[in-house]
Amino acid sequence: MAFLEVRNLGKSYGQAEILKGINLSVEKGEILGLIGPTGSGKTTLLRLIDLLEEPGQGSILLEGREVSGWPEKERIAARRRMGMVFQKPVMFKSTVLENVSFGLLVRGKEEAKQREEKARRALQSVGLSGYEGRDANTLSGGEMQRIALARAIVLEPELLLLDEPTANLDPRSASAIDSLLQGLAGGRTTVIVATHNMAQCRRLADRVAVLVGGRITASGKREDILGQEEEGGISGWKVPGFHLPW
Question: What is the reported pTM?
């Protein structure tokens, strides 16, 4: 049984049909690369999976149980099993440490010392040790992205949803984040990374789904969808009749 399953999912805003008959499944501990051009519907799909919005059609199943359409109380409980990092994260008006530990405070399971220790470890994992006392809103976009990632992983989510998580990072920081995500997926965390960066998918993903114009146009193992990196460039796509649509 797949950890996450999306069945015939659709979403429209007014007359604009954003997602059309999306079918996906993700196994526990797997990294799925959701790749597609800007405007293809990647962010909308992540928001639906995170239960921030209701689909217009279809269903979302978590460990075999349908969670889309649940009452608000049950949706909140399901969302506590997930973490999402937006492409443009919003920081609370407080220090970096307080931003990262806020979710732990809301959850209410740890004492203050435990919250601080966990938050410091999360910041260390994203390369931001020493930033604890700084005002989060004075940092760069790339630093804010890393704070948002720390804020998500400190809660140890079972499902981590990432929207262009390394878009504003330098290559060294992006590589470190990729390694962190691979380590998380090797444990109890399932990861979906939405990106337009094929190189990142090649480094990171176990499987890849290509989203174009609101439809999944190809999905499968990374090596079958993206091919293998070759000296001097990238080899051709291995899906018969499938070509880069952007």
Answer: 0.88
